[in-house]
Structure formats: structure tokens, C-alpha cells
């Protein structure tokens, strides 16, 4: 797959989503969506095979309107990249998010992705090959306490991905999970992440290569083995170590 496909990429106006869009547009029709039309226009102007839809994945009505618009344009998708995501540093005892902010973050990272996936499956040609690619995070393997909502939602999306894969195992839908490490985009920079970041283009090229090879899970980060080990052998101690290291890396006391 990923050759002559019709692909929807959520969060395609910047970062990893933009990188996927630009690379995949060489051989596919790509539709990107996001909230910021200025960013979407800029990305779509770089390749004639990229078009865009303004859609807020945290808003249920906006998701419904997105798929109504695609249907009206007679666009049938066969590949979905659930890529939209937002991150936070949040200590409940020291800072307060509004209820709206909490719901927006959960909806963007998890509920919205689930809703988009359902729409995607409903509109797809079930007799043809289809693929769902969910960009979770290596945080799904072991949470980072200073990022409780991001950790919970990415962990939730990982669970949804694995359960969906089982549900669809006897269909023409393939379900892929990207356990993405820290990549050199605006997201880690806004957290003042001073750790080593993976080059965005390198990650995207490698991810596409592995997807084309048929891999259902791609986890290229150097910390994956350690995170899995902590989760299985010493989850309590592992959380404390990760909390200490992440605070140091992000400059949080």
C-alpha cells in the first residue's frame, strides 16, 4: 500500500503530519486536516496532490462535517493516518486546566481519533485494501507522570489500536501503530525538551518503509526496550525513574 492511495492525515498542517503528507503525496492523493487553515494552505501549496479540509478533531460536529464534505466531493479514502495530538505538562496540585482544556486534549488525542476511525471504516470500500495508521507514542509503553493526560490518551489510543486490529483481522483493513519517540518538531520544543530528538524526515521515511514491508507496529526509539522492561518487571520503580529523568530533561522541578 501507500501507492496510488487516497489518504487522510489528521494534524497535517505541521510536524510529523506535514512530513508524512509531503512524502506520501509523491505517489498518492493526500488530504490533510487541522484547525489552522493558514498552515494547511502552506502545506498543500507544496504539492499538487495535497488538498486540505479545515476540521477540529476535538469537536464532534467538526468531524461529522469533515466526512460530509469528503462525501460531497466523492472522495473515498482507503488510508487513514490518525496523527493529530496535543501535549501538556501538568501537575494537578500546582496548576489548573479548565474543564474545556481537559476535554479538548482528551478529544484531540483519543476520542477524536476513535470517531474519525469509525467514519473512515464506514465510508471505505470494504472489498478493497484499507489501512489505519495510529500515531500513538512510546509513552504508551510507560507513562510520563508530568504528562498525565498525554500519557493516558496515548495509552488509550494504543489499546484501541490493538483491539481494533483483532476486530478487523478477517477483513481487508490493516491496522498499524507507530510508537513514536521524541521527534524534532514544535511539540517537544514547546516543552523545552533538551533531550536528543529524532530527525522528522528520517523518522517518517523509516516509518513508511516499515509500513510498506507489512509491519503492524513500528517503535524505533532507543528507549523502547527499557520502557517495556520497566512496564513488565518494575512498573512502580520505573515510573519514579521516568518521572525523575523527564523532569530533568524538561527543566521541571
Could you list some keywords that capture this structure?
single chain; 253 residues; alpha/beta; Rossmann fold; seven-stranded parallel beta sheet; 9 helices; 47% helix
Explain this structure.
- By secondary structure, the protein is an alpha/beta fold.
- Helix content is about 45%, strand content about 15%.
- The chain is built from nine helices and seven strands.
- It has a seven-stranded parallel beta sheet, with helices on both faces.
The percentage of residues in β strands lies in 5-15%
- Report the uncertain regions: none
- Which CATH class? Alpha Beta
Within the largest sheet, what's the order of strands? Answer: 3-2-1-4-5-6-7
CATH topology assignment: Rossmann fold
| DSSP strand tally | 7
> Gyration radius, to the nearest Å?
18 Å
**Net shape:** globular
Number of helices in the DSSP assignment: 9
Summarize this entry quickly.
With about 250 residues, this protein is α/β, with parallel strands linked by helices.
Question: What are the SSEs and their pairings?
Answer:
Elements: E1 6-10, H1 15-24, E2 29-34, H2 37-44, E3 50-54, H3 60-72, E4 79-82, H4 99-123, E5 130-135, H5 148-167, E6 173-178, H6 186-190, H7 200-212, E7 217-218, H8 224-233, H9 235-250
Parallel strand pairs: 1-2, 1-4, 2-3, 4-5, 5-6, 6-7
Helix pairs in contact: 1-7, 3-4, 4-5, 8-9
Amino acid at each position: 500500500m501507500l501507492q496510488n492511495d487516497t489518504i487522510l492525515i489528521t494534524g497535517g498542517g505541521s510536524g510529523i503530519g506535514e512530513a508524512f503528507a509531503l512524502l506520501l503525496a509523491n505517489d498518492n492523493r493526500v488530504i490533510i486536516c487541522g484547525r489552522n487553515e493558514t498552515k494547511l494552505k502552506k502545506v498543500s501549496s507544496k504539492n499538487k496532490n495535497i488538498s486540505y479540509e479545515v476540521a477540529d478533531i476535538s469537536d464532534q460536529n467538526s468531524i461529522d462535517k469533515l466526512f460530509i464534505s469528503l462525501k460531497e466531493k466523492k472522495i473515498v479514502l482507503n488510508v487513514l493516518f490518525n496523527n493529530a495530538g496535543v501535549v501538556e505538562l501538568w501537575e494537578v496540585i500546582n496548576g489548573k486546566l479548565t474543564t474545556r482544556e481537559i476535554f479538548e486534549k482528551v478529544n484531540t488525542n483519543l476520542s477524536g481519533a476513535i470517531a474519525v476511525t469509525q467514519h473512515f471504516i464506514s465510508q471505505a470500500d470494504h472489498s478493497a485494501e484499507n489501512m489505519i495508521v495510529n500515531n500513538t507514542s512510546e509513552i504508551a509503553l510507560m507513562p510520563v507522570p508530568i504528562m498525565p493526560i498525554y500519557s493516558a490518551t496515548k495509552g488509550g489510543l494504543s489499546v484501541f489500536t490493538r483491539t481494533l486490529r483483532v476486530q478487523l483481522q478477517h477483513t481487508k483493513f490493516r491496522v498499524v501503530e507507530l510508537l513514536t519517540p521524541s521527534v524534532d518538531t514544535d511539540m517537544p520544543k514547546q516543552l523545552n525538551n533538551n533531550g536528543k530528538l529524532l530527525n522528522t524526515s528520517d523518522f517518517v521515511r523509516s516509518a513508511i518503509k516499515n509500513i510498506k514491508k507489512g509491519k503492524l507496529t513500528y517503535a524505533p526509539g532507543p528507549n523502547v526496550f527499557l520502557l517495556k522492561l520497566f512496564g513488565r518487571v518494575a512498573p512502580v520503580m520505573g515510573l519514579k525513574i521516568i518521572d525523575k529523568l523527564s523532569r530533568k530533561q524538561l527543566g521541571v522541578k
